[in-house]
C-alpha cells in the first residue's frame, strides 16, 4: 500500500458550491502543513465512490474527503466496493464543507479548515461500525453502505425535498428546517411491518431512524443512545403523531430528549427489516435512496476514520 501520499477527493458542489469557492484556501492549508496529496474532483453523483475504489486498487491507503456527509458516504461505498485490502486498512479523514456535517460533528472534527487539517495530521484513528441496507428503486433491489444514520418515513421525505432544492442551487442552514414544516403539512404516516432482531410488529410510522452515529439533519439528536463501535444499530421510532405535537417538540429533536416522548420507541439491534407502501422513503447519510421493503444489517468495526474526540 502507498502510505506516504494522500488521495484528496473534492466534491466542488458540496455546501451549495461552497467547496468550489473554498478549495484554493483548503489546498493552501494542506500545502502549508506539508501534507503530500493527489487531488481528484468529482464530476457526477457517485463519482467519489469510483475514485476511492480505483485508488485503493492502485495501492493507496489514505483518503481525505472534502465535502459533506453525502461525499463521505460515497467514499465509504467505494471502500467496500474494492476487494484488494480489508476495509480497515484504509484510513479516512474529512474536511467538512457540506450543509449538515453530522458525521464530523459526532467525532468533533472542527468545522474550520485549519482545525480539520490539524486533526488529520495527528492521525488519531477510530474503527467504527458500518451499516448495509438493501432497498427497492425502479423495480430493482439495490444496496448501500452507510456510516451515520438511515432515515425512513417523514425524515426521508424532508431529505428528499432538501436534496432537490440543493440541486437547484439553494443552500443555507435553514434549508432543512424549512422543509420540515413544508413536508409536515402534506405527510401522512403509513402503516409499516417492522422486524427488529427477529421480533415482528406493525406500527403507523411517522419517522424512524436507524443509527450508528447520533446526529442528522444538521444537528438533530434523534438517536442519542447511538455508539459508533458497539456492533449495534440504535433505533428511534416515532409513531403517528399530530402535526401540532411535532411542532411543539422540535426542540426535543435537537437536544436528544425526543426519546422520552410518549409516542417514541427505542431499540438496539443488529438487524432491522421494514416494509411499507412505496411512498415510505429511505435515505442514508443524507442521500435519498428509494423505498422499502428494506433490510439492514450491521458490519462491526469495519471503517477506520481519523477522529478528534467522540461526542459523549
Present the secondary structure layout.
Layout: E1 6-10, H1 18-32, E2 37-41, H2 47-57, E3 62-67, H3 69-81, E4 91-96, H4 102-106, H5 113-122, E5 125-137, E6 140-146, E7 149-153, H6 154-167, H7 175-184, E8 191-196, E9 199-211, E10 233-239, H8 243-248, H9 250-255, E11 264-269, E12 271-275, E13 281-284, E14 287-306
Parallel strand pairs: 1-2, 1-3, 3-4, 4-14
Antiparallel strand pairs: 5-6, 5-14, 7-9, 7-13, 8-9, 8-12, 9-10, 10-11, 12-14, 13-14
Helix pairs in contact: 2-3, 6-7
In short:
With 312 residues, the chain is of the alpha+beta class.
Number of DSSP-assigned strands: 14
Adjacency order of strands in the biggest sheet = 7-9-8-12-14-13
Largest sheet: 6 strands, antiparallel, barrel
CATH topology of the largest domain: Tumour Suppressor Smad4
Backbone CA Rg: 19 Å
Task: Please estimate the helix content.
Answer: 25-40%
Return the average pLDDT rounded to an integer: 93
State the distance separating the first and last CA atoms.
Answer: 34 Å
Order of helices and strands: EHEHEHEHHEEEHHEEEHHEEEE
Overall form:
globular
Strand content: 25-35%
Amino acid at each position: 500500500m502507498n502510505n506516504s501520499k494522500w488521495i484528496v477527493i473534492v466534491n466542488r458542489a458540496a455546501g451549495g458550491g461552497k467547496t468550489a469557492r473554498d478549495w484554493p484556501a483548503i489546498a493552501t492549508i494542506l500545502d502549508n502543513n506539508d501534507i503530500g496529496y493527489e487531488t481528484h474532483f468529482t464530476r457526477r453523483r457517485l463519482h467519489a465512490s469510483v475514485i476511492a475504489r480505483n485508488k485503493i486498487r492502485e495501492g493507496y491507503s489514505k483518503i481525505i474527503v472534502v465535502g459533506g456527509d453525502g461525499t463521505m458516504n460515497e467514499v465509504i461505498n467505494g471502500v467496500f466496493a474494492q476487494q484488494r485490502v480489508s476495509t480497515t486498512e484504509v484510513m479516512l479523514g474529512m474536511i467538512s464543507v457540506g450543509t449538515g456535517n453530522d458525521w464530523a460533528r459526532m467525532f468533533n472534527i472542527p468545522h474550520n479548515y485549519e482545525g480539520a487539517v490539524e486533526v488529520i495530521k495527528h492521525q488519531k484513528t477510530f474503527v467504527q461500525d458500518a451499516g448495509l441496507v438493501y432497498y427497492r428503486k425502479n423495480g430493482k433491489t439495490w444496496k448501500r453502505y452507510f456510516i451515520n444514520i438511515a432515515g425512513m418515513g417523514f425524515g426521508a421525505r424532508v431529505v428528499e425535498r432538501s436534496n432537490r432544492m440543493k440541486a437547484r442551487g439553494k443552500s443555507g442552514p435553514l434549508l432543512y428546517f424549512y422543509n420540515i414544516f413544508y413536508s409536515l403539512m402534506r405527510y401522512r404516516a403509513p402503516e409499516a411491518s417492522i422486524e427488529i432482531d427477529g421480533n415482528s410488529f406493525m406500527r403507523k410510522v411517522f419517522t424512524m431512524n436507524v443509527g450508528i452515529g447520533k446526529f442528522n439533519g444538521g444537528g438533530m439528536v434523534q438517536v442519542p443512545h447511538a455508539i459508533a463501535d458497539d456492533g449495534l444499530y440504535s433505533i428511534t421510532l416515532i409513531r403517528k403523531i399530530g402535526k401540532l405535537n411535532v411542532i411543539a417538540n422540535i426542540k426535543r429533536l435537537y437536544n436528544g430528549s425526543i426519546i422520552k416522548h410518549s409516542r417514541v420507541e427505542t431499540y438496539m439491534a443488529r438487524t432491522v427489516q421494514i416494509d411499507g407502501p412505496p411512498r415510505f422513503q429511505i435515505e442514508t447519510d443524507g442521500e435519498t435512496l428509494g423505498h422499502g421493503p428494506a433490510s439492514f444489517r450491521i458490519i462491526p468495526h469495519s471503517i477506520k476514520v481519523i477522529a478528534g474526540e467522540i461526542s459523549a
